[in-house]
Design a protein that fits this description.
It is a single chain. By secondary structure, the chain is mainly α. Helices cover 58% and strands 2% of the residues. The chain is built from 6 helices and 2 strands. The protein has a two-stranded antiparallel ribbon with strand order 1-2. It starts with 8 loop residues before the first helix and ends in a 6-residue tail after the last helix.
Length: 198
């Protein structure tokens, strides 16, 4: 009897734990020519447009909220299933949890108002597509697994593969700020938005 270990959700957890966000660029101000100036640029506090600040706060909050929920729900490792039927149940539960988290982040991202900067809208659309693809994959795999007969050994492999592929679908989504670096306006907002400090 072959039982697929139900540890594949750890791949989602491991990626979600990573938060290697690069530091944002330092915003500096230099005086116009002809006026006395200090030898070095004077660091300035970023001043963000309120609408941009609010949007970035919501965007970052959705992404960091997904990562935090993933880590929180991972919990301690469960004991290995004692039968194929138990493995099916654990895989089904795992797929359901993954789909729920992905559905939540898609909902939060789509609920944001139109982005005030075109780059932000492009990034948001890309993130929504990745999360929605992973959500649909997990949902479909769970439905297929749940239709299988208890003890159907062959039903485990597609479910496990769906979990691994869902991880690949959301690669590159754990840092909401990195894709915004080409926009000084978005970076200024990210520097002070509470949701971007997760």
């Amino acid at each position: 009897m072959k039982i697929v270990p139900v540890l594949l959700g750890a791949c989602l957890l491991l990626a979600a734990c990573s938060d290697g966000r690069p530091a944002g660029p330092t915003v500096t101000v230099t005086a116009p020519a002809g006026k006395p100036t200090s030898p070095d640029p004077i660091p300035a506090s970023p001043t963000a447009d309120p609408a941009t600040l609010s949007w970035m706060d919501g965007f970052c909050g959705a992404i960091h909220g997904y990562r935090e929920r993933t880590n929180r729900e991972a919990g301690p490792a469960k004991p290995d299933p004692g039968s194929v039927a138990e493995a099916q149940q654990q895989l089904s539960a795992q797929l359901g949890e993954i789909a729920a988290r992905l559905g939540e982040v898609v909902g939060k991202l789509t609920a944001l108002p139109p982005a005030p900067v075109p780059l932000a809208e492009t990034v948001r659309a890309g993130f929504v597509k990745k999360f929605a693809t992973a959500h649909d994959r997990a949902t479909s795999a769970k439905e297929t697994l749940d239709r299988a007969k208890p003890g159907d050994q062959a039903s485990q492999t597609p479910a496990a593969e769906a979990i691994e592929q869902a991880q690949k679908d959301v690669d590159g989504t754990y840092d909401p700020v990195a894709p915004m670096t080409e926009s000084p306006e978005l970076m200024a907002a990210a520097a002070v938005a509470p949701g971007c400090k997760g």
